Amino acid sequence: MKNILSKTLFICLIIFSFITCKDDNAPSEILIATAYYGNYNASEVFEIPVYDTGLDDTYEVISTGANPYPVDHQCDGSILAITRGESSVTSYDPKTGSTKLIPLEHQPRSSDCGSENGLTLVSGKDKSMTSIIENESVILTVGANIEVTPLSDFGGGLATGHPKWLDATRFFHLDRTSRVIRIYNTNGDELSSLNTPTSVHHLIKTNDDYFYALCEGSPSSLIAPSILKLSLNGDILELVDEFSFPTGSVGAENMGGHHLDLAPNDVHIYAGSVEGRLFVIDRNTMEQVAEIAVGKGAGHTGFSPSKDLAVVINHNDTFVSIINTSTLEVVEQITVADSEPTGNAKSIGHTFTFSPDGNSFYLSAPQDGNIVEIDMESFSVKSKLELTANANPLQGTYVFE
Question: pLDDT value at position 76?
Fold first, then answer.
């Protein structure tokens, strides 16, 4: 009886050891997020698992409408592919794996989901229009239902800027063709409008109820990019102040603004210009705090508050610039793309994110067809995922577990 018990105990110990013992070199493979990137060269979206150990070679392909550019995470948990090659968007439910094509009266540019009402705005690429989607159906479209040729401002041939909800019943329509910011309500009424120096790419709202709009500039008209500080008086948008990017020796004909981002200190605005300069502006005084040399196509900036670091996305270069947000100096340039862009391509994409602990930074290299993870401790590429041969992952979203 004792031998039987001893053997049983020995077997149990072996099984327990097998279950609990862990190879120190084996990855834990804990899923921390799922990335969704559109393939602008095809009709598909990549669904990519992001693990705490980095990227591996697994991903799924979701069929959509033509040429998805942005891929946005919606308030209801669904994913919306902005398919710029046709007059529709494609909704995808990650829980069921089902997709639905939603027809529009215009080709889509980008979207914004209202946290107060659950409604989705989709602005126009070929027409200065904005549609509202509820439960995968269009319930309202505002603007002019005619194809337009935008002004020759920096930013390409898109009819509108990024849409944005103002509150539960009002939203911004950025009319690039007319250089006008318009405010509509959910009944389709235009409430007010504000003329701008050049086309507006997007705007942000701060906690003290100011709005900051990025004017892209007009190289052909020798107008430099600028940032507008705006306030709202009832339904009327009013100009409070403006910061114009200094031309210096560069010249306005070589400049173009793409994005502004508010730093975690709630004071500094970071805004890049295409020639490779980053401007840091005090949003209260609207005066320049610093000018920093970065890479060509300087656009979006991501922030890691825990590390006092900012990552500048240089869309037309092969590297990102790491900036110390306390000293406002470049501490590292990290090469993430294999080659510089050709034509209108982007070497580094629009979408990026930090891991929850701030130790990793994820982004795309569209021209290479890669998703890249940067180690923010060593300032080096930690892992890289190569997508299909024809992949062009320009913009997407990261959904954390």
Answer: 93
